[in-house]
Amino acid sequence: MDGLPEDIHIEDKPLASKPVQPEGSIPEGITHEDIDRALDRLAIERARQSSGSGLVFLRRMLPLWLLIGPGVLVFLGENDAPSMLSYAATGARYGIGFFVPFILLTFLMGYIVQEMTVRLGAVTHRGHAELIFDRFGPFWGRFAMADLVIGNFLTLVTEFIGIRAGLSFFGIPPVVAVGGGMLLVFGVIFTHRYWTWERATMGFALFNGLFVPAALLAHPDWGAIGHTFLTWSPFPRGGLFKPGVMLLIMSNIGATVTPWMLFFQQSAVVDKGLQPRDIRAGRTDTLLGTLLAAVFGIAALVATAPLFQHGINAQNYQAAQFAQALQPWIGRVGATLFALGIFEAGLVAAMTISTSSAYAFGEVLRKPHSLNRPFWEAWPFYGILLFSCFAAGALVLIPNAPLTYIVLVVNVIAVLAMPPALLFLVLLVNDPEIMGEHTNRRLGNVAVVSVVVVLVLAGLGYGIITVFPRLIAGI
Amino acid sequence: MESEDDILGVKIRRAPVTASNEETVAIDIEHRPDLVLSVLEMDQLVNAKQHTKFGRMKLTRGIRILLWSLRIYVIMMVLIVMLQILQTVNGAH
Prior knowledge:
Number of helices of chain B: 3
CATH architecture of the largest domain in chain A: Up-down Bundle
Number of helices of chain A: 19
CATH superfamily of the largest domain in chain A: Amino acid/polyamine transporter I
Largest interface: A-B, 69 and 65 residues
Number of domains of chain B: 2
Low-confidence stretches of chain A: 1-26
Order of helices and strands of chain A: EHHHHHHHHHHHHHHHHHHH
Mean pLDDT of chain A: 85
Oligomer: heterodimer
Distance between the termini of chain A: 81 Å
Order of helices and strands of chain B: EEHHH
Largest sheet of chain B: 2 strands, antiparallel
Mean pLDDT of chain B: 71
Number of strands of chain A: 1
Largest sheet of chain A: none
Helix content of chain B: 40-55%
Low-confidence stretches of chain B: 1-17
Strand content of chain A: under 5%
Structural class of chain A: mainly alpha
Number of domains of chain A: 2
Distance between the termini of chain B: 73 Å
CATH class of the largest domain in chain A: Mainly Alpha
Number of strands of chain B: 2
């Protein structure tokens, strides 16, 4: 075995059906996707075993730096255009109060759920859609896929609404904004490497932090923010059981806990090549994404709180209108940051959500489904990604669509589709046949069942108030 | 720790990459893709995954009832969302 490290040996015992490979060619059974993934793994091993000089802290952080990605991307991707507009609408209608700690709670729910997808991906090396089809069969698998496809497409539409609306603040015509957004998403076909795509998308995603300086320019009342974290008050006027408030509660939950996140993170963990011993790093990655997204989301709410304080009715505002309305209080710079933030939120989510659809289709159809594959090797995968983006972008160019209402309803639909998705997740992550020693502990099950109960109750509350508005008014 | 695996009919003894051999692996991996096996787990290989499927989970009566209940919940709630959209559209006119 010339050229092999001393402790790696390959026996020359190929089966009759597997011809011996010529020297230097790729053996049958090993693909370019495997090689790319192995190179990424090798970099991680090298970082872990590095004993060279340098700061101890940096040496310790390097493996983590290489392993983070899916968790940060999924949460910053979920801080998308409809989510940021939900937070902005909440801040404009109710100011700093109940919803600030409530948003933090929704992110905690998001972390509980997403951590399980890390374990599932790292242990089984299978995507979420593939596991559902394998373990539950095509009947239930098709339901899960229908929820995902419908939800993803509607959400993608709203991402392009965000791209269009964010750039309209700068006077950029809709066709140019949407077309430019599509081209940036289409850039995925030139990466050929999961790693390259992940780092480029994470670079874009960090601009989600633009909402923080926008919030600081609003000169928030830090005492009020501290008070609301401690007391969850003041409550919205008239209480929580009003259709408008319930819609915002559902929108804010849907801004953090949605089916596409389950599918995306698990598939990204698999594509990145994470293994069971990386689970701790995967948790750190997910926690980092959770904290960043929570801070940025709350910042969007705080940035629009001046509209509430000055009694401005922002009920039907779109992204650019929020930025324009905020300009007297947070200045031109603040308004620009807000508009750019909405654009970024739409763009990064368009990248991640379209990738989530493509992964799921590839897994279910058993076609190549990896960002480590070039376009010609995995054209159905890239085709789904590009087509979904193109169709969603084209729909957004239809004039006079009721944009703000659409973005709020999309999040509501995401919440409603979540309980069945979570049931699949709970059953899979408690399945010892596929998870071995990594099945859920009791605390994890209590936490995720609590999330399901909260989501179902919120959905039922929304339904009752919508169908019987006078019932609650009479109480 | 060295282990023996059977990948697509090829018997392979492998050991984890160590500090002593990782440079060699890094240099050779693109020319000798069989070295991929030193850093990837068996079921991370694309072709190995295509040839193996997890079997069907046994769904108990309770799980089936839960799955159906949540499916009915989703359908009913989507109808309610559509109702609210209609109410809003009618209200706007």
